[in-house]
Write a structure and sequence with these properties.
Radius of gyration: 17 Å
Shape: elongated
Helix content: 40-55%
Number of strands: 4
Strand content: 5-15%
Number of helices: 7
Distance between the termini: 41 Å
Largest sheet: 4 strands, parallel
Low-confidence stretches: none
């Protein structure tokens, strides 16, 4: 096992495509965690130690309009930590942490009234932040039509900045 790779995340365990294919939030969570546990079991079968590789696994979730998306992060973290500790023998806090990136749902965007996608994206992004995401991607309002325009990309960025700087959710550990 190489020890000189620093903070390299070897695998991003994705549920985004599962949600985009039509899964509800709970199904996305279940399949994504199952994929994560499959990676853990594979690495363990190769002789790696859980406390060495688990801190460098990360997750990638979609956040749609369903209110259940606000709890995906905390539910995922609780299940992951308990399983890594109780089933796989992780002993360090870092090995039990679940770090995740969230992208707002492309499937929720509409081509007919793309300006309304700004509101959809803002709601989805706020839900991701309230759910404890570590990083966030906000879709541009015109992604449903083509590659984002410069103006639409700037609005997507400003959406994140308004949430971070103006809502106050970044000032409390658990806004919910």
């Amino acid at each position: 096992v190489r020890r000189d790779v620093g903070n390299f995340y070897s695998v991003s365990i994705s549920g985004y495509h599962i949600a985009e294919a039509g899964a509800n939030p709970i199904t996305q969570l279940a399949f994504t965690l199952a994929n994560g546990f499959t990676y853990v079991e594979y690495y363990l079968s190769r002789g790696m130690k859980i406390d060495d590789f688990a801190p460098n696994l990360s997750f990638f979730f979609s956040n749609g309009m369903d209110p259940e998306y606000t709890v995906i992060g905390r539910v995922a973290r609780r299940i992951w930590a308990r399983w890594l500790r109780d089933r796989y023998g992780a002993t360090t806090d870092k090995a039990q942490w679940l770090r995740f990136h969230t992208q707002t749902a492309g499937v929720s965007l509409t081509a007919q009234q793309p300006d309304n996608n700004v509101v959809r994206t803002a709601v989805e992004a706020l839900a991701a932040v309230l759910g404890g995401t570590n990083s966030l991607h906000t879709n541009a309002l015109d992604e449903v039509l083509a590659l984002p325009s410069e103006k639409a990309a700037q609005i997507a960025l400003r959406t994140q900045q308004v949430i971070a700087e103006e809502t106050g959710v970044m000032n409390v550990a658990d806004p919910l």
